[in-house]
Amino acid sequence: MENLETKTMMKSNIEIVQFAAKKWKLLLAIGLIAGIFAFVFTLPQFIPPKFKSKAVIYPANLGQYAEENGLEQMQQYLESNELRNHIVAKYNLYDEYDIDQDDPNKKSWIKLAYDEHITFDKTRFESIKIEVLSTEPIKARDIAQEIIEELNQIIRRTERKKYQEIVVITKRMVEDKKADLDSLEKKITELSTRYGILDYEVQSERVTEKYMDFLLSGKKGEDFEEAKTLFENLQKYGRKSYDYHFQQTAINSHYMNRLREYELALKNLNKIQTYSNVVVAPEVPDRKSSPVRWFILVAAIGASVVFTFALLLVSGYQNK
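Predicted structure:
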């Protein structure tokens, strides 16, 4: 039974080959006609050639945000609306992609066309490959270069906005601590000028000793009165003066820390640095990337011949 089915199948295959051999002139003609049409319609007048410029970049100087690494952050910046709108406007891509700007769906069309012509792909080396297709080779290179430059500008603006907020916050904190220091300084000055208290720990020991000497010796006079007054002032206001000095030391330490934070924020705000290391710089392509004419020719000829042969088989089977 199996041998019979095999023989039947082989016979059918032989008949198909014989049938194709009989129709070779027709199939050849169809293939030639399809090839001619494919050749004509892939001419620049019908399908403008497109050129591809490539670049490869590594992220640099990007901080840590949540669980995102530098590569993921850069990918998001590259796919941002801000970057896309900048490139579209600067290089007039609405005209290049033949999109009517009066079309109510123009934003959707330009996004689709942009994503088709400009791609950003992660590589296995933890870098990002930028590829730009354009009908003009120099323009393709310029767009790729502009993407890198504008990427740095966007990140720099974002970073500066962040550091500007930090500057404002740390400056306010510095000013608050400076106000606390000024207030304490005023109180300390008042105690020292009005009550003669300069250093509670040192003065309390010496003034007490001197005052007790006067009491034990029984000497009276101007020196005794001065010692007595200062002794009494120390009793009343000495602890307060000590507390003020203690607070002043602690607040001054906080003030210096915040001042350093403020200076660091100012430094970060004003620094100018790049956020992408260019490994492969974009170049002017010297060969077109699309259309691949030989592939279109082969596909057109093959498809037309196969389709025609299938029609002939179906027609021949029905007639039979």
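Summary: Strands lie at 50-59, 118-122, 128-134, 276-280, 288-290.
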